[in-house]
Amino acid sequence: MRRRRCLVPADGFYEWKDAGGGRKRPYAVRPKDREPVAFAGLWESWMGPNGEELETAAIVTTAANRELAPLHDRMPVVLPPDAFEAWLDCRNVDAETATALCVPARDGLLEAYEVSPAVNRADNDGPELIEPAPPEATPAEADADVSAERKKKPRIDERQGSLF
Length: 164
Prior knowledge:
By secondary structure, the protein is α+β, with helices and mostly antiparallel strands. The protein has three helices and nine strands; from the N terminus they run ββββββββααβα. Strands 1, 4, 5 and 8 form a four-stranded antiparallel sheet that branches. The chain has a three-stranded antiparallel sheet with strand order 2-3-9, with no helix packed on it.
């Protein structure tokens, strides 16, 4: 916090709401105006176990604002543009002052809506993951829809070659 603060640009994030019975329902959270935001972040460079240099980052969280509290008790720190310079100025802005910027986003900035449980699987990727879930779908129906969709369109990841 004293030396390595950063901004993490984003157009939204996912949050899971406890639906009871051990089930969690996914929600997309995004700015109402659809403009990008910046999360407060921290980064570090360190040596891995094999001597490789690794750079890592983490998003700073805070208590949820009033609108997101029904979903989860925490949320990313969304920094307003006028706080960017202070957050990034590790030389002149001490950690205690920077910590004062870590407050919940103002009410009215974000909107949340339920999305498909397909976001729960790391091998799923695509614009359909941020589409609102049909209001009439039950969790079992949504899971069945996801399974049927996966059977129709096999996903091939062409970013990485096969080892075999």
